[in-house]
Write a structure and sequence with these properties.
The complex is a heterodimer of chains A (350) and B (316). Chain A has 350 residues and is mostly helical. Chain A is built from 12 helices and 2 strands; from the N terminus they run αααβαβαααααααα. Chain A is globular and about 80 Å long. The chains are: A mainly alpha (350), B mainly alpha (316). Chains A and B meet through helix 6, helix 7, helix 10, helix 11 and helix 12 of A and helix 1, helix 5, helix 6, helix 11 and helix 12 of B.
Chain lengths: 350, 316
């Protein structure tokens, strides 16, 4: 107390003596109640799932226990938590097997020496999530799929965000005929079933990663235009914009120096909210055959390949489906939470 | 109203023209549609045949002429001839659209029967089991793509339990074949309808006139049915009409998974795979037409249900 010459009254009040309802509520909460309270208040589980996804996408493919595209013939349709058949049957793993073998199907050979664990942590020949119809490890492929999903969605999201935010700013800032044209285009674009657009673009430009990124960007940009335009129309009426104009700032400078920081929050929220939609779109496109092409293991591709074997090996469908579902649910929760935190006004738009 | 309809009609025409014109232009970047008739070896078609084909398909004309010819024929109800199947596109679409419409109506009924009552229940019994049940149904519906719902439904109800067939549609009506596709198609829409109903119901239940009705002694059930429900259902009903138009994405996927011989799978998907551009154009035209009709219907329904909304001449 020596630091202040005039001690204020309220500093002397012991906070524990104040009886507010909120305070007493907080005290009475049990341990499990506290955990429940934190889980309800913050997106703990979704955050955890997404962190796992990001880690899987970054280091997963390098630590994956098996080859991505090379299967072990004897392990076809092997269930969850099963050990490789080639360990049980000596024929599958002849002593002269080499790790760089390619199996042309003319004899019972393993494509690589499968009793040799590739990583110390991993039990020999163990398939955590089973193997698919050509004997590839599903866990390995799901890890690779996480990276592919992340890459595709990130790139197309930033592409869509760039186009959408720019057009939204131009549309809101200039108004008039430019605004009319852009809004019309967005309206018409909104009316299109995206799968139809995607199929046509794929028909015309061919199947491939670049085309897929382009298609997904085409899907994502409209959401930004609408929201950003509405917000710019509010912001440009503000006094500080008028002040900037009076001091002689150009339109470009006003937009990028003065308006852009004001809409960044909104853009981030809309971006988070549309990420889950993009993951869904990517998986649907890959499932239909217009997105990522096999043998690259996108989750949609894995689901599509597995659906013929639903009766004998349901895990081939269920594992990638669960991956898509878990990630999308988490992103939805995180997006909602972020929206409530950063931008409560957006709530009403939903 | 007349002014609004006129504007709507005008902008619909622009949408249709814009979309079909865009496809016409984009197809120019693509390989010659005649290549469909060339065997994989690259041999087996003579120069005269090639030229005759070009003549028949009108490929020698300039782009604007091709387009106006197409528009003219379309207005007379003729969408051209499918390249891959050598049949009139109109007949092809007519033969397939019935299955899709049946699927869509089935899914729609499922979505409404699940979404709206569950939304009302979740709002009225807020914070109880029913609220959490409804919300988890909605979360699943919003996060699972249609093919995941469809495949999991097949796995549980066709493979394990064996209650319903796993796919296909036989010529004679069999209600069992409709259950799984309709559920898979309707779930996503049911989720959004449920969320919408719940939030608008909560909003209404919170309002002054509900409190007044309670204060003057009206029973709780009567308040819900007579006062709250009618006002709360405005948004869900409009959105239920719009659901139809957004249906085509899901319908395509569901038709692929269930081998359903509808317009999405048998016309659009095959047209893309076969590079069959008259069929593609025809399907796109029909799709956009369906969308625009339902979007307009939804707007009209909105004004009919809710007299407070006045359609103005301003942009939608």
């Amino acid at each position: 107390m020596a630091t202040s010459d005039t001690p204020r009254e309220f500093e002397h009040v012991d906070s524990s003596t104040i009886e507010t309802p909120l305070h007493s509520l907080e005290v009475k909460r049990s341990f499990i109640g506290k955990i429940w309270w934190v889980m309800r208040r913050y997106p703990v589980l979704p955050g955890f799932i997404l962190i796992v996804l990001v880690i899987a996408a970054i280091i997963g493919p390098t630590v994956a226990p098996y080859e991505r595209d090379i299967g072990i013939v004897g392990d076809r349709h092997l269930g969850i938590l099963k050990t490789s058949n080639c360990l049980l049957d000596a024929d599958w793993n002849p002593p002269y097997a080499r790790s760089d073998w390619v199996d042309y199907g003319d004899g019972p050979k393993a494509p690589f020496k499968c009793d040799e664990p590739r990583y110390g942590l991993w039990p020999t020949g163990f398939h955590l999530l089973g193997a698919d119809h050509v004997g590839r490890d599903v866990f390995t492929r799901v890890l690779h799929g996480a990276r592919i999903s992340m890459q595709v969605v990130m790139v197309s999201l930033f592409l869509g965000m760039f186009v959408g935010v720019s057009l939204g700013m131009i549309s809101g800032y200039y108004g008039g005929i430019i605004d009319e044209v852009i809004t019309r285009i967005v309206d018409i674009w909104y009316a299109m079933p995206f799968l139809m657009v995607a199929l046509i673009v794929v028909l015309i430009f061919g199947r491939g990663l670049t085309v897929l990124l382009f298609v997904l960007a085409l899907i994502s940009w409209t959401a930004f235009v609408r929201v950003i335009r509405a917000q710019i129309m509010v912001l440009k009426q503000m006094d500080y914009i008028a002040a900037a104009r009076v001091t002689g700032a150009s339109d470009f400078r006003i937009m990028f120096k003065h308006l852009l920081p004001g809409i960044m929050n909104t853009a981030i929220v809309v971006g988070t909210l549309s990420t889950s939609g993009l993951i869904l779109a990517e998986s649907v496109l890959s499932f239909v055959g217009a997105g990522i092409q096999p043998p690259t293991p996108a989750w949609g591709v894995m689901t599509n390949e597995g659906r013929d074997y639903l009766t004998i090996a349901p895990h081939q469908v269920l594992v990638p489906s669960a991956a898509i579902f878990g990630v999308v649910v988490s992103l939805n929760f995180l997006g909602d939470w972020l929206r409530d935190r950063l931008d409560p006004i957006l709530r009403q738009i939903d | 109203m007349a002014n609004f309809l006129a504007r709507r009609f005008f902008s619909s025409i622009i949408s249709v023209i814009g979309a079909t014109l865009a496809i016409f232009i984009l197809i120019q970047f693509h390989s010659d549609p005649r290549e469909l008739f060339v065997p994989d070896s690259g041999w087996g078609i003579s120069q005269e045949q090639w030229d005759n084909l070009g003549e028949r398909l009108g490929l020698n004309d300039p782009l604007w002429k091709q387009y106006t010819t197409w528009i003219g024929r379309t207005l007379r109800g003729d969408l051209g001839i499918s390249l891959a199947r050598d049949r009139a596109v109109t007949d092809l679409i007519k033969g397939k659209i019935g299955a899709t419409v049946q699927l869509a109506i089935g899914g729609w009924i499922f979505a409404i029967l699940l979404g709206i009552p569950l939304g009302v229940l979740a709002a009225v019994k807020r914070g109880t089991f029913w609220d959490y049940f409804g919300r988890s149904i909605a979360i699943v519906g919003q996060a699972a793509p249609p093919f995941v719902t469809a495949l999991v439904a097949i796995w549980i109800f066709a493979v394990i339990l064996g209650w319903f067939p796993a796919g296909g549609r036989s010529p004679e009506f069999n209600w069992k074949e409709y259950v799984l596709p309709c559920v898979a198609l309707g779930w996503g829409a049911a989720a959004s309808l449920m969320r919408l109903t719940r939030s608008s119901m909560l909003e209404v239940l919170d309002s002054e006139y509900i409190r007044l009705a309670r204060a003057k002694g009206v029973g709780w059930n009567w308040v819900i049915y007579k006062h709250a429900l009618r006002n709360a259902l405005i948004a869900p009903v409009t959105s239920a009409l719009l659901v139809f138009s957004g249906w085509l994405n899901g319908a395509l996927v569901v038709e692929i998974v269930f081998a359903w011989p509808g317009i999405g799978y048998d016309a659009l998907y095959r047209a893309v795979n076969d590079n069959d551009f008259p069929l593609l154009l025809g399907t796109v035209f029909i799709f956009i037409l369906i969308y625009l009709v339902f979007a307009t219907l939804a707007d009209i329904a909105y004004t009919l249900i809710d007299p407070r909304v006045r359609i103005s001449g301003t942009k939608a």
